[in-house]
Design a protein that fits this description.
By secondary structure, the chain is an alpha/beta fold. A hairpin with a 6-residue loop joins strand 12 and strand 13. Helix 3 packs across helix 10. Pfam families: DFP.
Length: about 350
């Protein structure tokens, strides 16, 4: 982790931390997996993003480039999706995700010789720049004036660590290892995810999907979204929103969009007594390879790997916590090892 400079600001206060004592009860059964009819209806009734053709070209070129080099490709999704309440959007529903896990994990996939398509919430954390863009300190705290006062330099005490990050970033950029693909709304995310999955079909089991994005559970159908900003006088000072459940497209990803790729999903809960059961249920419902369960309160220190064979906890040790080791530096290499086993198993059965 990058050392942060001292600052007179209240750097120990984190306003994004939720009140865990008031966490909601999540024992209610989840919506069923989406069917082919659900898929057809959703993508037929909602307009694709106008820039989708450009993304298609960029993704195809990126995948073909690495396919020729026999390099594995990870699609890492990151950050939260929004649900607009107006077409010319002023108001929208969001979630707390800043994209920390996705951005961090992308770095470790890159360090382990994977190419990465980073499907991320626009303006959320990005690989490498995350070390400096999401702290309680201003980026300028890392800088200093040159002795003659004519130049800007990195403060001496941050030179070594910033140089390490810069070299890794430059290498990924120069070797064309990282493709950034943004989204904001849940519709943009789903259209783009489907597109990328279909483009990645050319590399088959050399693809791994690391689905760390926080995807909205509900949305407002296009047919019910007002064109302009909702006026308070028009709703009598009270706004009542009737949302629909977002289809659970993970099963479509597994069965149709990327049927022989390795797929990793996440299950976030606040109640440790239901976490593993929820992860097992998701694994059975969607029939993929791995669910990584984590608790909101401890997600940066421990996770649980749930596979058809059982579950296993991955935890940082006290010294690792003290030294600010990223748990992603442990879980990503383990996923890569599992991906290797998955590829071998596909080859053995002739896929």
């Amino acid at each position: 982790m990058t050392e942060t400079p001292t600052s007179p600001m209240l750097s120990r206060v984190h306003t994004s931390a939720p009140d865990t004592d008031s966490a909601i009860d999540r024992t209610i059964p989840e919506f069923p997996a989406a069917t082919p009819i659900d898929e057809d209806n959703y993508f037929r009734l909602h307009k694709p993003p106008p820039y989708l053709s450009q993304i298609s070209r960029d993704v195809a070129e990126f995948i073909n480039f690495h396919h020729k080099q026999n390099r594995k490709v990870a699609l890492v999704t990151s950050g939260g999706t929004t649900v607009p309440l107006e077409n010319n959007t002023v108001r929208f529903i969001d979630n707390f995700s800043a994209g920390t896990r996705g951005a961090t994990s992308a770095e470790y996939f890159l360090e382990n010789s994977y190419a990465v398509i980073f499907l991320h919430r626009e303006f959320s954390l990005l690989p490498y720049s995350r070390h400096y863009s999401h702290t309680t300190n201003c980026f300028l705290d890392y800088l200093a004036e040159s002795p003659d006062g004519t130049k800007v330099e990195v403060d001496d005490k941050f030179q070594k660590k910033m140089l390490v990050v810069l070299k890794k970033y430059r290498y990924a950029k120069d070797q064309n290892l990282l493709l950034m693909v943004p989204f904001t709304t849940v519709h943009q995310y789903l259209f783009t995810l489907k597109l990328i999955a279909q483009e990645m079909s050319v590399i088959g089991y050399d693809a791994v999907f690391f689905l760390a994005a926080a995807v909205s559970d509900f949305f407002l159908p296009s047919s019910r979204i007002p064109q302009h900003k909702i006026q308070s006088k028009e709703v009598g000072g009270k706004l009542v929103v009737d949302l629909e459940p977002v289809p659970k497209f993970l099963r479509r990803l597994v069965d149709s969009w990327a049927p022989i790729a390795m797929i990793v999903s996440f299950k976030l809960e606040t109640d440790d007594s239901i976490l593993i059961d929820k992860a097992r249920a998701a694994l059975k419902r969607y029939n993929h390879q791995l669910v990584i369960g984590n608790l909101l309160q401890t997600r940066k220190k421990q996770v649980v790997f749930v596979t058809p064979e059982g579950e296993r906890w991955v935890k940082l040790t006290p010294p690792q916590i003290k030294n600010r080791i990223d748990i992603e530096s442990i879980l990503v290499p383990e996923i890569i090892s599992m991906h290797g086993d998955w590829i071998q198993s596909r080859k053995e059965i002739g896929l």
